[in-house]
């Protein structure tokens, strides 16, 4: 993992291999914990590759006193605390480069 946008494709492929083989336990992690780590890595990729992006911590809209991590650029915010809530990391999805596409959509060089 080199924090490049393309590394998101490799990470997502590794995630699906672990999900399909029930391999999270072999890493000493739950699937939910791994998904949280993916969110943190996504945020790191964004902030290293887009000089206008920054980390943000915001209160959950429907859970006062609870907070989530995200990345922001201008008026765009992607909260990454739990990517499973974004339905990005669903093993049955055939399109498996959704993290990369999300990066390009919101934080690519032309944005």
Write a structural description.
The chain has helices spanning 7-21, 31-49, 98-107; strands at residues 54-59, 67-73, 76-79. Strands 1-2-3 form a 3-stranded antiparallel sheet, with helices on one face. α1 packs antiparallel against α2 (31-49). It has one domain (7-107). The longest helix is centred in the middle third of the chain and has 19 residues, at 31-49. With 111 residues, it is α+β, with helices and mostly antiparallel strands.
Features:
15% strand; 111 residues; 3-stranded antiparallel beta sheet; alpha+beta
Q: H/E element string?
A: HHEEEH
Strand content: 15-25%
Helical content class: 25-40%
Radius of gyration: 14 Å
| Unreliable residue stretches | none
- What number is the mean pLDDT? 87
Tally of alpha and pi helices: 3
> Strand pairing plus helix content: what structural class?
alpha+beta
The main sheet comes to: 3 strands, antiparallel
| Shape, principal axes of CA atoms | globular
Number of strands: 3
- Widest sheet: strand ordering: 1-2-3
Distance between the termini: 24 Å
Total separate domains: 1
Q: What's a quick, concise take on this entry?
A:
The chain is an alpha+beta fold. Helix content is 40%, strand content 15%.
């Amino acid at each position: 993992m080199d924090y490049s946008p393309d590394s998101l494709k490799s990470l997502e492929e590794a995630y699906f291999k672990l999900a399909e083989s029930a391999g999270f336990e072999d890493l000493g992690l739950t699937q939910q914990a791994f998904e949280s780590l993916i969110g943190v890595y996504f945020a790191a990729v964004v902030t290293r590759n887009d000089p206008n992006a920054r980390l943000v911590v915001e209160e959950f809209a429907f859970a006062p006193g609870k907070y989530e991590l995200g990345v922001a650029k201008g008026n765009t915010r992607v909260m990454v605390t739990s990517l499973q809530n974004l339905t990005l990391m669903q093993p049955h999805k055939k399109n498996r480069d959704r993290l990369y596409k999300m990066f390009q959509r919101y934080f690519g060089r032309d944005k």
